[in-house]
Structures are given as structure tokens and as C-alpha cells.
Amino acid sequence: MNKLLLSVFITGAVLSGNSYAALSSELEGRLLLLEQRLRQAEARAGKAEEKIQQLSHDDRAVNTAVANPQKTPTDTQALTLTGFNNLKLYGDVELNMDGASRSGQLTSIKTNDDKHWKPGNHERWDINGRLLIGLEGYTRHDNGFFSGFTVQPLANINGNMNVDDAAFFFGEEKNWQVKVGRFEAYDMFPLNQDTFVEYSGNTANDLYSDGYGYIYMMKEGRGRSNSGGSLNLSKNIGNWYLELNTLLEEGTALFVDKRYHGNDLVSNKNAVYLRPVVAWKKEAFSAAVAMESNVVKNAWRYENAQGETSDPSRRRGYGLTLSWNGQATDPQDGVIASFSTAYLDAQDEQDFSIGANTLWRRFEVGYIYAHNNIEKFNSSNVIQDGDGVFDAAGKYSIHTVHTSYLFPDIMNMKNFNLYLGAYASMLNSADTGSDGDTRYGMRVRFKYLF
Fold first, then answer.
1. DSSP-derived secondary structure for 330-367
2. Which helix (H) or strand (E) holds 158?
3. Over 165-181, what HEC string results?
4. Which segment of 200-209, 234-243, 362-371, 378-387 scores lowest on mean pLDDT?
């Protein structure tokens, strides 16, 4: 019996030892596999850390290049801008085919994009236009402040180069802004979808032309001058908008050929135009009042026929405009309408203008009336052309009707439009009893945006 128990005990011990050995071997294998996986994970983590360090090094190289532009990074793999946001490149093409009853302007504005056109009595048929390329940069900061710039080079098809806007601006969004350079301030005589009204120019140069009616439109201090620059301060307060534009320029640039009332002008010093605007807007309706004035005495002068020196640089204008923009909420059937009036009190001349226009479904029509009261005029220096020009003291009136129509999306291209425009004007003198001088013109404009 004892031998039997001993045999059972020895057999159980042997079997238990074999099981323990098998279990130990299995545990050892699993530990080796776990250790191998840990080593692989450590290797992957090391590679990720190296990649992060490389990216950080590349970022430091780019930042160094921005802070020190004279140093060129050699370990970056792509062209990187400065990191400022909202950089935009754009442009448009305007090509005009014009026909007019005469090349002489109704007012002071050049008759087309070719700045070499001079007033004349012959009919004018020509093709003109320009290519504009614009570059704008804008940086918005987390605290609400912003800064930016705009530059718009122009290439006229006659071969001349120019620039439309070139300005730097900064401020706080929806609050205030400072703008410096070449640009236009608030429009106090909008013409809506204007394509061909000979006095609808948009610069402060060559606005007044002796011998032609002057349709005063609050543009003498608006800016975009070829002989000076502007400083513009603006502020938003709820529905109110406040603006003060300061234009510094060579003052005789306002007058074609530097002549005023038959007298040759001489520039003494630069003019300074102040142009404050107060506007209010709510939903589709807006209203604005403004004044503009040259505040520098004797900015330019002339000697009359008697040899007396005169200072014609005192010029002060006032304007009011009311607008309704129904297309902001209804682009298809909304109506855009505006009413504007302006009055200029200058030495030996007072000018009054009033106009209204409306735009509905791409069709625009408008009317402008202007009245000029010229108190003195040196006719001895003017060559009489016998064609109804305003070349003497007196009171004159100008009636103008203008219209245009837009054909959008030519060839199903949303950036390609065609405009048809036309105007007709009647000029007459209340003092001479003249039957008037009728002038008219038509334009086909191709406009391509890119």
C-alpha cells in the first residue's frame, strides 16, 4: 500500500513539473514579444520627435527670412509669403468704342482715357480703353485693428502708363480708419451705371475748362490727383459715417491749360483742400452732406488785362446726395436711385448742379441740370470759334440726359459684360439768347474682370 501511494505521489510530481515548465516557457515567450513591441514603439516615437524638430527648424528659418529679408534660407522646401493674410491679385479690362458730336468736353473732364485729347469742333470716333491690374494686402489682428495697402497700375491702349489707386491704410474695424495716398473719397454726385457722360471723370485734374460749361459735382477735393496726394480720416458711429479728406496738390492742375476766365494762372504754392462729409445710412436708404474748400490763400494767381493781380484760389463748394439701393436685398427687381445737388462759390463765378438717376433691371437713365454764372471774363485772350462755347461773362445753362444698359455674362462668362451708353446735352445762354449748342455721344464698352 505504501509503495502504491509513493508511486502515485512521484507520478503527480512529475506531471506537475512538466506543466510548470510548459507554463514558464509560454510566459517567457509572451514577455519577449512584449519587449519587442516596446522597442518598436520607442523607435517610432524617436522618429516622430525628429520630424517635429525638423519642422520647428524650418519655421524658425522662414521667420528669420521674414525678419531679415537680406538673408535667404537654404533649408526650406517651398516658397513662403510673409504670413500676413488676405493678399489679393485681380484686374479688369475696359475697351471702349466711342462716337461723339465733338471732342470738346461739356465740362472740364477729358473726353476719354487718352489724356492728350484737346477740345475741338470736329466729330470724334475712336477706340480707347485700359488694362488695370490690382494688388491688395490686408492684415486683421485679434484685437480688431487692421492695416493694408492697395496699388492699381494702369496700361492705356494708346501706350501710356498710369496708376489708378495707390494707398496705405490702417485702423480699427467698424470704428475708424486712416488712409494715405492716391484714391477717391466719398462720392457726392453718383451717376449709377454711368458709362459715357463726358463730364463724369473721377480725378481732381483738368476739372475746369475755359469756354465750356462747368457741371460742378463736388470733385475738386475728392482726390485721385496727378499732382498731389490725400490724407483721409473716417469714423463709423452706429448708422453715422464721418469723413475728412485732405488733398494737397499743385492747385492749377484743376484747370485745363492753367487758364481761368481767359487769364493765364501762375502757381504760388500748393493748395490744401479740406472736404468733410457726414453720411447716415439705414437699410436701403442713405444721405450725405459735404463741403470742400481750398484753405490756402494765394495758392495761384493771375494778372488781368489792366495788370492787376488777382487771387482766384478762393473756392468753396457744398453738396447733398440722397440714395436708395433696393438691389442690396433684391438683386433682380430692386431699384437703385439717387438725387444729388451741388453749389460752388468761387471768385467771379457761381455754379449750381442738380441731378437724378435710376437703375432697374440693368437699365439706367438720368438727368442733370447745371447753371453757371460767370461774372468776369477776359475775352481778349480767347479765340472765338463761333460754335457756342462759353467765352464771355454771363449766365449759362446745361441740360443733359444720359442712359446705359448692361448685357451681362457674354458667352456665358460671368466675368465678361457689355455696356451700351449714350448722352445728349443742350447748352444755351440766358444773356445772348442763343438757340443753344447740342452735343451727344454713344459708347460700346467691353468690360472683362479677372
1. -TTT-EEEEEEEEEEEETTEEEEEEEEEEEETTEEEEE
2. none
3. EEEEEEEECCCEEEEEE
4. 378-387
* Coil/strand/helix, residue 199: coil
Residues 6+ apart with CB under 8 A from 180: 167, 168, 169, 229, 230, 231, 232
Strand (E) positions, 173-311?
176-182, 228-237, 240-249, 259-260, 263-264, 266-267, 271-282, 285-294, 300-303, 309-310
Question: What does DSSP assign to residue 212?
Answer: S
Range name among 25-29, 118-122, 202-206, 364-368 with the lowest pLDDT average: 118-122
pLDDT digits (tens, 9 = 90+) for 20-29: 444 455 656 6
106: left (phi over 0), alpha (psi -120 to 50) or beta: alpha
Q: Position 84: which residue type?
A: F
**Domain extent listing, the chain:** 1-69, 87-124+175-449
Domain at 87-124+175-449: CATH architecture = Beta Barrel (2.40)
d(CA 20, CA 1): 29
- State the Cα angle at 321 between 318 and 322, rounded to 5°: 155
Cα separations in angstroms, 55 against 65, 76, 240, 376, 380? 15, 10, 49, 77, 79
Q: Which of 270, 267, 346, 263 is nearest to 312 (CA)?
A: 346
The residues, ordered by sequence, that sit 6+ positions from 322 with a Cβ below 8 Å of its Cβ are 285, 286, 287, 338, 339, 340
**Which of 190, 169, 172 has its CA nearest to residue 321?**
190
Average pLDDT in the chain = 80
Nearest CA among 224, 319, 317, 335 for reference residue 279: 319
What is the per-residue pLDDT across 346-380, written as a single tens digit (0 to 9) for each?
Answer: 988 999 999 999 999 999 999 999 999 998 888 77
